[in-house]
Amino acid sequence: MDMNVAKMARDADHQVVVEFEDRIAWVRINRPEKRNAISPALAAKMSETLDALETDDRCAVVVITGTGAAFHAGMDLKEFFRATDSMPADARRRLSEINSDWQWRRLLYFAKPTIAMVNGYCFGGGLNPVCACDIAIAAEEATFGVSEVNWGIVPAGNVLKLLSWVLSPRDGMWVAMSGEPFDGKKAAEIRLVNEAVPLAKLRERVREIALSFVGKNPYAVRATKHAFHRVRDMNFEDSEDYLFAKLAESRFQDPEKGRDKGMSQFLDEKSYRPGLGAYKREPK
Ligand code: ACO
Fold first, then answer.
1. How far, CA to CA in Å, does 31 sit from each of 14, 112, 169, 173?
2. Which of 119, 181, 171 lies closest to 145, judged by CA?
3. Mutation probe of ligand 1 site: the residue of 39, 77, 175 with most atoms within 8 A of C-beta
4. Is this structure's pTM higher than 0.90?
5. Pocket residues for ligand 1 (CB within 6 Å)?
6. In angstroms, what CA-CA distances link 10 with 46, 53, 101, 264?
7. Cα(166)–Cα(160) distance, rounded to whole angstroms?
8. For the chain, which residues score pLDDT lower than 70?
9. CB 144 within 8 A of CB 118
10. What percent of the chain clears pLDDT 70, i.e. is strictly above it?
């Protein structure tokens, strides 16, 4: 198999659909006949898609979702595993890296806010983007499951790491060891997702959240997300120092000088209250 990402992605050209609306990029995994299971080509296509969106001005927020009954039914057992079983270990490792790239690595530090909109089935590797996106909203009717144990493997592809990062040890052990399916309401209860809403209201709720990000200073939102991840593994002293430096950086690096605008609109113009909403930005 040719491991060139651009060439691999060509085979999945129609399996990812991107629609732009009010600077929200709706990214839809579009392989409903296979419940949006991820083949090597589809992994490459998702990676290429996220790459492009990071610098595309039509996109201020990314929403990842799926066509049909599934969000993402995990890795394609036939194409990602059985078909690659006889490949050399290095090649299989490379495939796994290509998949990790979109499923969590670049999502964790993506330059723009990301929302996982879980519309239906979400199994195994499908849990990765749910954990790695900044926000996750599920349909109450969605079905989740860390199903690896059900077919006799350990949840690899970093699923366990991401789960242990988001869930409490009690909930994480339960979902990973039992492999039991659970619905969107349960996902919200164990804080795998922020909220669960009826499927009929899912898109509207996600749109509302996405638009709230579009209205905020992108530099401040990005720096906050990156800093949140970084400080989790720092001690208190290092974290305080890092955040102080980050704050100083933001005053110099933010192209729209949000701090000055925010203070001036509050203190001088008295046109808004920072505790209740964001300052007014120039329209793009
Ligand atoms: N890998 C490969 N093919 C898949 C996958 C998958 N993960 N999920 C669905 N498909 C295929 C089926 O083989 C079937 O293909 P076919 O039409 O060529 O026979 C087609 O998608 C439709 O699947 P059905 O099982 O018929 O659909 P149904 O709606 O009844 O069930 C469900 C959907 C529950 C998602 C079921 O397909 C399923 O259990 N899929 C596997 C989920 C899973 O455990 N994923 C792996 C997680 S582990 C990991 O990601 C490392």
1. 8, 25, 33, 30
2. 181
3. 77
4. yes
5. 34-35, 37, 69-70, 73-78, 121, 123-125, 147-148, 157
6. 11, 17, 17, 50
7. 10
8. none
9. yes
10. 100
